């Protein structure tokens, strides 16, 4: 009797796991089958390296959007990584217990706020500030990256704080017992040992940033051209799809699926690279040296 | 005056729990002192007060005085970092850093601001030799310490501790996770080290206490029941409870 129950549960879990994989595969197949024929007939290189996106005259160059997406994502990471790591170190090592007990759930809640709220805040508060202080419309790559920074901070803080806190207490004691200060211990022992987990945190933040659509649309200006400075408006790959999908037909419609393929491949590449570093770091901590 | 450490009327509490009661003991310079006693009697807590490791525990409170070379180590003016440099510690479970063998030993020197590469290399080599580990690791100093055996890791931890030249070395059951051969190596090492260092070792192994130490203190329920020359304590204990413990009648 127990065996049958166990059998059913195991198979049930297996089927659910397979189902979700199949659904994802189907979505990927659908996107590629819609987008690939277009990319082939338009020309892969022309599509990816073309610098003009003008559906009304039949130009489908997606490079400005690639630059836009990578630009706001990397800017956001440049702002978010130092801020969130310092915050995580504070929470894991320095903050009094009660402070940590308050901060942790607050930060985890921030990670769950819908992106439209951040976008709305950006639109109402940040864009006017930018307009006043930096000129232009205020809608820009810089504005978008600041909103993304705020959005990914909670994820990176929370995950890297866990990584720092799960470093075995023995390392910390060993370092202090040798006469290291608390800060030397953090810098030379706790932080290096937590790097694999911190890389994971950054991957998660990066994934959220590059996939973010709504908040970016609301503050980035969405002009499909190369930015020359960070206060120029930009359009992200995600925004390109979301903005035009509503009315696109024919080739234009397929070109948006092509955009999705490009986004998909960029994300895969970033994940592979990041996971490689994560893995390599883990190996060196275990079997090589730091 | 040949006492390195003088402990007087030490009482330790974790919150309300009274862990150490009226401990008074003097530790002789350049001798090995063993602490024995049943599990939970406060041996670890006691040696962790000697390098102020218990300061990390929020609920820790103490009264009494502990003098190191005549100076009160709990004086507010004392620099804890400095104290821990003078009073090194080897833990029960080998705990090398996830760094290379070389960096493990060099760590203490570097954090104390030593930059001279040749000096560091020399000191790493000397410390590993003193810890009887050099021959086993000299070919792979840049490999991770995590790849060493438990016994090698523990000797590495000892090398790491002596590299910063403390005056006192505290060892909390340093052999409890090791096989007999590694244990013998570490005991030999302790014999060698006592020429330069004052050593306090916690052990559950009576034979070990008789083998390595000149003095022994017997802890029971947070009190020192009896302390003195190891030979005397084991051959003709004054207290009935000591006798019961060392003859294996409890504990
Ligand atoms: N951080 C702590 N908070 C509260 N109580 C503690 C703490 N650490 C130890 N204790 C208590 O203090 C008492 C003494 O513990 P200690 O570790 O010093 O014993 P021990 O003699 O070293 O035992 P063992 O031989 O098992 O290592 C125990 O009752 C333990 O529960
Ligand atoms: Mg103990």
Keywords summarizing the entry:
heterodimer, A: 290 residues, mainly alpha, MetI-like fold, 2 domains, two-stranded antiparallel sheet, globular, B: 251 residues, alpha/beta, Rossmann fold, six-stranded mixed beta sheet, four-stranded antiparallel beta sheet, binds adenosine-5'-triphosphate, binds magnesium ion
Oligomer: heterodimer
Q: Supply the number of helical segments of chain B.
A: 10
Question: Ends of chain B: how far apart?
Answer: 35 Å
Overall geometric form of chain A: globular
- What do the pLDDT scores of chain A average to? 91
User: Would you identify the CATH H-level superfamily of the largest domain in chain A?
Assistant: MetI-like
**Total individual domains of chain A:** 2
Strand order across the largest sheet of chain B? 6-7-8-3-9-10
Largest sheet of chain B: 6 strands, mixed
Describe the fold and architecture.
- The complex is a heterodimer of chains A (about 290) and B (about 250).
- With about 290 residues, chain A is mainly α.
- Chain A folds into two domains: about 40 residues; about 240 residues, MetI-like fold (Orthogonal Bundle), CATH 1.10.3720.10.
- Chain A has eleven helices and two strands.
- A two-stranded antiparallel sheet of chain A has the order 1-2.
- The termini of chain A are far apart.
- The C terminus of chain A is likely disordered.
- By secondary structure, chain B is an alpha/beta fold.
- In chain B, helix 3 crosses helix 4, helix 3 packs parallel to helix 6 and helix 4 crosses helix 6.
- Chain B is globular and about 55 Å long.
- The two termini of chain B are about 35 Å apart.
- The relative contact order of chain B is 0.18.
- Chains A and B meet through helix 7, helix 8 and helix 11 of A and helix 2, helix 3 and helix 6 of B.
- The complex binds adenosine-5'-triphosphate (ATP) and magnesium ion (MG).
- Adenosine-5'-triphosphate binds next to strand 2 and helix 1 of chain B.
